[in-house]
Amino acid sequence: xxxxxxxxxxxxxxxxxxxxxxxxxxxxxxxxxxxxxxxxxxxxxxxxxxxxxxxxxxxxxxxxxxxxxxxxxxxxxxxxxxxxxxxxxxxxxxxxxxxxxxxxxxxxxxxxxxxxxxxxxxxxxxxxxxxxxxxxxxxxxxxxxxxxxxxxxxxxxxxxxxxxxxxxxxxxxxxxxxxxxxxxxxxxxxxxxxxxxxxxxxxxxxxxxxxxxxxxxxxxxxxxxxxxxxxxxxxxxxxxxxxxxxxxxxxxxxxxxxxxxxxxxxxxxxxxxxxxxxxxxx
Length: 282
Ligand code: GUN
What we know:
The chain has helices at residues 6-28, 43-59, 74-86, 105-111, 123-130, 139-150, 170-179, 194-198, 244-247, 261-280, and strands at 2-3, 33-39, 62-68, 92-95, 159-163, 183-187, 203-206, 224-227, 231-232, 238-239, 253-254. Helix 1 packs parallel to helix 10, helix 6 (139-150) crosses helix 7 and helix 6 (139-150) packs across helix 10. It folds into two domains: 29-115, Rossmann fold; 139-262, Rossmann fold (3-Layer(aba) Sandwich), CATH 3.40.50.720. It is built from ten helices and eleven strands. It is globular and about 50 Å long. By secondary structure, the protein is of the alpha/beta class. Helix content is 42%, strand content 16%.
């Protein structure tokens, strides 16, 4: 069994991006700019945004975080996004999700200029991903593909079972795997007999937020296990959706939590923002 070390690869990518920022600055006199919208006081969202900001600083980006109160109006956020769309110092705009119930998230995501949509959540970029065209790809599934590539794992012809059908993780993950010629199944909350599906998988990718959802008896010998879950256990420890101790005895590769997919998400945000900056300064 081999651990897929996302922390190490994220560091490597961050260094590459940092170099890319220096080159861009020499060529154009500007650095990539990222704006983050954070609404309310959700501790997990605050923690993620904090990590994103620190990573931007390390890479030499210009970054700004717009913190807004929980009871903010739709109109105020829309005006802020329009301002960001028109601000030439900004190459990327990220709206940290989830948003409070009074906000129409879909409408906001559609308002972000597609060429600044570094999260890849705008329908324009979603469409480009599903048709196999270049565009912005959501950071977490993109990070998973980079991690597989780093360990020379080719998904072509493999049975990939994605557990979770969110717009942020499951659906783009499935598109990327399909684009890479895997045979893809998407399981979700209404899937009957999850084990029947996962037992047939050469690769299991799970991101639903349920501790120990994937157990040893649900995976086949030698499977590749990608744990995209992040949960806080009762002990306070961060854990994924996979019973690591049990499953790691049986699989060929596995991502740990923490230190697997999580750091890759941030590295890909940097990479997407540098890509946006390069394209926006052409
Ligand atoms: N909330 C959970 N994951 C993400 C992500 O990748 N991007 C944004 N914007 N919000 C999230």
